[in-house]
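Sequence decides. Our protein:
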Amino acid sequence: MQLETERLLLRRPQPGDLDAYSELFSDPEVVRYTGGVTKTRDESELALQRMIRHWEDFEIGLFSVVQKRDNRMPGRVGFLLWDAESWLHARARPAARPKRRSAGRWPVRTGAAVMQPKAPERRETGRGKSSGFGDWSR
């Protein structure tokens, strides 16, 4: 599955995305908005494998965002499944994990994270902080 706009391609993550994700996840400015901990290349590979498995298991997940003009990948955006009672990621409870769409309604938490190292522009968020991504700390 993929979605396309005039400027962007949103597609399922692929093993070939490792270089881009490794660059993003190793940048402290990027991970500041996604947990605050940088990842090594090996850790980035594991994260990418989890994103790919999420699509395989649930037919939904995070898209890799690709800019058409230069084929660069500034980040990811999409959907993750969560257990609505415990708020643990669906993978954390394998016994309760739904299989594909036949399991009925899924609790879905949506998220958007367009991660771009060393973002050139910053804007005022209105909460006393400046950020290229908005203030997600609340």
In short: The chain has one domain: 2-131. The chain has three helices and seven strands. The radius of gyration is 16 Å. Residues 128 and 135 are 9 Å apart (CA to CA).
